[in-house]
Design a protein that fits this description.
- The structure is a single chain.
- The protein is 32% helix and 29% strand.
- By secondary structure, the chain is α+β, with helices and mostly antiparallel strands.
- It has 2 domains: 5-110 and 260-265, no CATH class; 118-232, Gcn5-related N-acetyltransferase (GNAT) (Aminopeptidase), CATH 3.40.630.30.
- A hairpin with an 8-residue loop joins strand 2 (43-47) and strand 3 (56-58).
- Helix 1 (5-29) packs across helix 4 (156-170).
- The termini are far apart.
């Protein structure tokens, strides 16, 4: 699927809103954290603590020019809270957003946005033997959060900070959460959120000792089936370029719509 401006706007608006809503949900889960959101430049900025993966801005510049005063508001939002300004930039943004390059931002990383139509998804192979995937029930959301977070944050200190965020994600009303077992042991987790027929996949995670056994592949299968049954016309996911995650999604027919540049400005 070739990304045009209409598709990019749909995906980026969803990302911006998701960032804001997830941050507010995290604040309800961890009231000791002073979270904040800001609608700015056609997108959203979020703060969930210095160094949090939620502290960033997404979806800016998709609906037209972003005025210098809006960029000032964006930077003040982060700087006043002691956080670096981190901005996710779609390559189809209005050129005015490129003014960030003249404000002292540097490239932090890249993020591939992949999409697939669930009705046309390909099945790369039969179901993986010994792997079971099911939709997490209300009494399993803590298990989901622990499993998903552990796959991303093996360090105990980082895990302690991440747990409340993942619990918040699992409890959001538009989110469907899934767990995977390998040979009867909980091995991985994943989720998707739905807005206007778009299923945004996120938090796909497999515990280190179970990687290479097919759990990641089966978590994709289960969510595609669920999104199709829910009437979604499009699925999306973000992945680090060249990652195993990207390759697994591509095996299911996901294709890169575009690559975003993540910019960061740190304050001296």
């Amino acid at each position: 699927m070739i990304a045009d401006l209409a598709l990019a706007r749909r995906l980026e608006r969803d990302e911006g809103r998701n960032t804001a809503e997830a941050t507010l949900a995290y604040g309800r889960e961890a009231p000791e954290v002073p979270v904040a959101t800001l609608e700015v430049g056609g997108g959203w900025a979020a703060f969930a603590g210095v160094g949090s993966f939620l502290t960033q801005a997404k979806g800016l510049g998709m609906d037209g020019p972003v005025e210098s005063a809006e960029l000032d508001r964006l930077e003040d939002f982060f700087q006043s809270r002691g956080a670096a300004a981190q901005v996710s930039v779609c390559p189809l943004v209005d050129p005015s957003l490129l003014d960030l390059s003249r404000r002292g931002y540097r490239v932090l990383e890249f993020d591939n946005v992949l999409v697939a139509e669930p009705s046309r998804a390909v099945e790369p192979s039969p179901a993986s033997p010994g792997v079971e995937v099911w939709r997490a029930g209300p009494d399993e959301l803590d298990l989901w959060a622990e499993t998903s977070a552990r796959g991303f944050f093996p360090d105990e200190a980082a895990l302690a900070r991440a747990r409340p965020a993942f619990r918040a994600f699992a409890g959001m009303p538009a989110v469907a959460s899934f767990l995977a077992r390998v040979d009867g042991r909980v091995a991985g987790a994943g989720a998707y959120g739905v807005r206007d027929g778009l299923a945004g996949f996120f938090a796909t995670s497999v515990l280190p000792e179970f990687r290479g056994r097919g759990a990641h592949r089966e978590l994709i299968r289960a969510r595609l089936d669920s999104a199709r049954a829910a009437g979604c016309d499009l699925c999306s996911v973000g992945a680090m370029p060249g990652s195993d995650s990207q390759r697994n999604f591509e095996r299911w027919g996901f294709r890169i719509a575009y690559t975003k540049t993540i910019l960061i400005r740190e304050w001296s």
